[in-house]
Specification:
heterodimer; A: 8-stranded mixed sheet; two-stranded antiparallel sheet; 40% helix; 14% strand; globular; B: two-stranded antiparallel sheet; 15 helices
């Protein structure tokens, strides 16, 4: 009996090892937050790459729910996939040494390919760089644009937005479009909506302010530029003259109100589906400019693919990363690469955006990403809890400038200086 | 296929290696005991329980010890833990109670900087505000305690009511018992998602209420976003499953009450209420005691429902979910561990209180017989 058990065990182990020995080419795994539909589309790209060469095979391991909890645990434990998707906020993990530096493996990349770092918008690539090294290849940079409901503008006799609009034009239109349309004494249509989204940095940047200095040593939120940009942002949030209250938004839904034709203007990501809502005639322009500076700077949500520092196959993982990123740049909009910043490329990637492609590309020229650094999560948490939150939720009597002066030293403590 | 096989192969290899390792351990433990003269039957038993002991040591004892150590450190998952002494506990327990100069004064203006409002109490023209450095922790503590204080007694009363019904001689009793127990065996995550859908703005509950509310010109309630309604939602959800599991224990206790006691009560002229008060309740008090302890601990450790139904920030989520967020979303493992130990102390204190009070109201038939 004992001998039989030993033989069975030996056969099992040898069988496992023999299968392992035969497993060629090398498997490169990638974890993403993709859901069912997105996974299916991504798999088509992966299949094309796998069929085009024999050195490695990419295997997709989607984690559609609670992605970052699982990924962080895997990275901390030194397990998990070879490649990971990371959004901009989580690129701060690069400072923990859990991602592989890419500069060496990308050094010989051909110009205007996914491995050519000089072809990325510098503001987007910067999110992926720490201490002079690059840790991720961006695969999307989605600028915030202004969606507007043409029908509501025409009905109210208000001129439609243009790419040259300033804050003054925007405010005047938003107020003119805030109406009691059924005459019951209560406003039921609003010119704009703001529940914390869009990010205030759009208006701060346009005013010349910075939440964190370029060298990550100061957090000058009490500068006149920052304060004026933030004040304009606050004037658009829960302001009865142009935007619904938080109760109305909670009751009717944020984006849903625009889709229901109750909001005339909405700032959303360029890839959002707000311009293809059935029954709505929706236009897209870039966000309005600060009238003093003329800046149309906008926020870009961006995400990247990184390589785990624990990958056993760094060279092949890098090759897979470049190949996959190249494919994704032809799938997701907007591509973060300068050479692909064309109307033609955008329409090829997403034909349903043909009508707005020109204005999206225009907006992309002015997009910026968050100033991510190693301790960004703590800075961001404090910025919200002590500054942004109390102001937008009307929980303080202090002015923006007064509160900014109080909070700045605390924010700068998180910078580690 | 090869690629997929290769992906999962390392896991399979590790799994086989663990099995072989545990097999070797069982064998060695058995042989060592035999060598020291332990009887074959006892040695076999101890050897076979070794996998469980190893699992308990690694996944329970080590984890508990590690969390205690981490609660005194600053640890973000990726860097080595840095000893900070009692700083995590000091920050969590840092509470300020500040008087309000007037009803109009904002809590944020009354509290020192870095303190957030936990509870505001207005009395006359003033009042006071309770603030904390980690106001979200205390809001979660408040939500969890209020939830436990309401749901545990209601759950016990409901479960006892169901058990009394199931203890009647009615037709198809077996089917009724299965029906009432079924919620207890459904996955908590699935039921949480189902309740979230039912309470959503366009969910079945609002659809049912809409005709009645429209008569009064009222919009359907926002069950999941209105701070005033979210706790009632959780309390309603808590009844799901609680009746089933607790009812089975109550039912077993009811079945164990000797019929003679009721016959004696009948001879003494006791009515239904007196029989329930003076016979049924004392006889099932051990079951009541057990359900109270288990129910209190469970109510303080709500997780699944909190994970799938988002709570407005001002209300505060449940403590267990808050700990999870602190650990995995914010990567403050040290603070999360400290929160866990504070929660443990709370559970121990409440359980000890219930235990200490039990001599006054729990009746043990065997204990009484022994004293005789």
């Amino acid at each position: 009996m004992k001998r039989l058990m030993m033989v069975v065990g030996l056969v099992l182990v040898l069988g496992v090892l023999s299968v392992a020995a035969q497993s060629d080419p090398v498997t490169i795994t990638i974890s993403t937050w993709a859901g069912v539909d997105e996974s299916a589309e991504l798999q088509v790209l992966i299949d094309e790459i796998n069929a085009s060469q024999s050195d490695y095979q990419i295997v997709h391991q989607p984690i559609p729910s609670d992605y970052y909890t699982q990924v962080k645990t895997q990275l901390a434990g030194g397990t998990g996939a070879d490649l990971f998707w990371m959004d901009q906020n989580n690129m701060a993990l690069a400072s923990e040494g859990v991602f592989l530096p890419l500069d060496e493996c990308l050094a010989g990349s051909a110009p205007e390919t996914a491995g050519d770092l000089s072809d990325y918008y510098p503001g987007i690539l910067a999110v992926n760089q720490f201490d002079g090294a690059t840790y991720g290849l961006p695969w999307i940079a989605q600028p915030v644009v202004l969606y507007y409901n043409r029908g509501l503008f025409d009905a109210a006799g208000v001129d439609q937005p243009t790419n040259d609009w300033t804050w003054d034009d925007f405010t005047a239109a938003a107020e003119a479009l805030t109406l009691d349309t059924n005459g019951d004494g209560e406003v039921d249509q609003w010119g704009f909506t703001n529940n914390g989204w869009p990010p205030p940095f759009i208006f701060v940047w346009q005013s010349g302010g910075e939440p964190i200095s370029a060298d990550f040593t100061t957090s000058p939120i009490d500068s006149p530029e920052f304060v004026s940009g933030f004040e304009f942002y606050l004037s658009t949030a829960y302001n009865p003259a142009m935007s619904p209250s938080r109760d109305v938004i909670a009751e009717q839904g944020f984006g849903e109100m625009f889709k229901a034709g109750k909001i005339a203007m909405f700032m959303g990501g360029a890839a959002d589906d707000l311009d293809r809502v059935e029954g709505l005639d929706v236009g897209v322009v870039r966000v309005p400019a600060n009238p003093d500076t003329g800046s149309h700077t906008t926020f870009a949500w961006n995400a990247s693919t990184v390589i785990s520092a624990n990958t056993p196959n760094p060279e092949l993982a890098c090759a897979a990363l470049v190949a996959l990123t190249e494919q994704i740049h032809g799938w997701k909009i907007v591509s973060p690469r300068i050479s692909q910043g064309t109307v033609e490329h955008l329409i090829e990637a997403e034909p349903r955006k043909e009508a707005s492609a020109e204005n999206i590309i225009l907006a992309a020229q002015d997009m910026r990403a968050l100033p991510i650094f190693g301790n960004y999560a703590e800075w961001d948490s404090l910025f919200w809890s002590d500054f942004w939150g109390p102001l937008i939720n009307d929980e303080t009597d202090l002015t923006v400038a007064e509160l900014a002066a109080e909070v700045r030293p605390e924010l700068e403590e998180t910078l580690g200086n | 296929m090869d690629a997929i096989l290769a992906t999962y192969l390392p896991t399979l290899v590790r799994y086989v290696a663990v099995m072989i390792g545990l097999g070797v351990l069982i064998y060695v433990v058995y042989k060592v005991q035999i060598r020291f003269g332990v009887k074959r039957e006892a040695a076999t038993g101890r050897a076979l329980v070794m996998p469980w002991v190893v699992g308990f040591l690694i996944f329970n004892v080590f984890a508990i010890g590690a969390s205690l150590y981490l609660s005194f450190t600053d640890y973000n998952l990726f860097r080595a833990p840095e000893w900070v002494g009692t700083a995590n506990y000091s920050e969590l327990l840092d509470i300020q109670i500040v008087p309000l100069e007037s009803r109009e004064q904002r809590s944020s203006d009354a509290l020192p900087r870095r303190y957030g409002e936990v509870q505001r109490v207005e009395i006359g023209d003033g009042g006071f505000v309770i603030g904390a450095r980690d106001e979200n922790f205390w809001r979660s503590m408040r939500t969890t305690l209020v939830y436990a204080v309401i749901t545990v007694p209601l759950g016990l009363i409901g479960a006892l009511g169901v058990a009394l019904l199931l203890n009647q001689e009615v037709k198809a009793l077996g089917i009724w018992r299965v029906v009432y127990y079924m919620p207890a065996i459904l996955p908590a995550v699935a039921t949480a998602l189902l309740w979230r859908w039912m309470f959503s703005r366009s969910g079945i509950i609002n659809s049912a209420l809409a005709p009645a509310l429209s008569i009064f010109g009222q919009p359907p309630p926002n069950w999941l976003t209105d701070p005033a309604l979210i706790l009632p939602v959780f309390i309603i959800v808590s009844f799901w499953g609680v009746f089933g599991a607790n009812s089975v224990i109550f039912l077993a206790a009811l079945k164990g009450i000797p019929k003679e006691l009721y016959e004696v009560a009948d001879i003494d002229g006791a009515g239904e209420w007196k029989k329930f008060r003076h016979v049924t309740l004392p006889m099932i008090s051990p079951a009541l005691f057990y359900n109270l302890i288990v129910g209190t601990i469970a109510a303080l450790q709500v997780f699944e429902v909190a994970a799938f139904i988002t709570v407005p920030e001002s209300v505060g989520t449940f403590l267990n979910w808050r700990i999870f967020q602190e650990a995995f979303n914010f990567r403050n493992m040290g603070a999360a561990s400290a929160m866990s130990w504070i929660m443990l102390m709370l559970i121990v204190a409440l359980t000890a209180m219930v235990f200490r009070s039990s001599s006054a109201w729990v009746f043990y038939q065997g204990a009484r017989d022994e004293r005789k």
